């Protein structure tokens, strides 16, 4: 499916904003319930970027990375989402101000069932499959996924996907 990636990415992040709003409203009704707060900041290119993707699968990838960013961040963390383009690729990045990933674990976080520090992860819940599935999906799209992180200072996950900068999504821009 050919999608305008700006809209596609924005729509996914809108859902996170709405989910948080709803959780906060629900928590007010059932007082005592604690909601993990976060703020999503968007830095997107203004250009339309038309990319051929499997929207369900790519939604799963972005959902997982944003969920991780929330899960492994302290309360009130800022999650910065960027979208930019190079000659032949779009690049998405998702940065958090969370726990970060120790250098020795960086290469392994995309492995099946791998979770950094069993003790810290157990409390959080999860299977350790999210990133390995994400990697598989990104590679099915001929893209790449990688991470930059410093322990205690946060992580940035990157995805690059091939795209054709001349693609206009079928609009009649030349008559
Ligand atoms: P699942 O996604 O299956 O529910 P999970 O979140 O533990 O479980 P992955 O998404 O594959 O599994 O992530 C693997 C591990 O990488 C996590 O357990 C965590 O230790 C580490 N990790 C992933 N994202 C972050 C992040 N943003 N900050 C710090 N650590 C992270
Ligand atoms: Mg996960």
TrEMBL record:
Domain (Histidine kinase) ranges: 1-165
Localization terms from the record: Cell membrane
Entry protein name: histidine kinase
Annotated source species: Companilactobacillus versmoldensis DSM 14857 = KCTC 3814
Section covered of the full-length record: 471 to 645 of 645
């Amino acid at each position: 499916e050919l999608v305008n990636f700006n809209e596609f990415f924005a729509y996914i992040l809108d859902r996170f904003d709405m989910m948080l709003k709803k959780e906060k409203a629900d928590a007010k009704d059932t007082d005592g319930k604690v909601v993990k707060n976060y703020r999503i900041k968007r830095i997107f290119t203004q250009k339309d970027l038309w990319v051929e993707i499997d929207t369900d699968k790519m939604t799963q990838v972005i959902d997982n990375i944003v969920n991780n960013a929330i899960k492994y961040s302290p309360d009130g963390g800022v999650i910065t989402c960027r979208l930019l383009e190079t000659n032949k690729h779009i690049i998405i990045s998702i940065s958090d101000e969370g726990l970060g990933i120790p250098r020795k674990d960086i290469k392994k976080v995309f492995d099946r069932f791998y979770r950094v520090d069993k003790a810290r992860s157990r409390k959080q819940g999860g299977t350790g499959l999210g990133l390995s599935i994400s990697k598989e999906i990104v590679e099915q799209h001929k893209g790449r996924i990688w991470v930059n992180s410093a322990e205690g200072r946060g992580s940035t996950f990157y995805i690059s996907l091939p795209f054709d900068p001349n693609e206009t999504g079928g609009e009649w821009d030349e008559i």
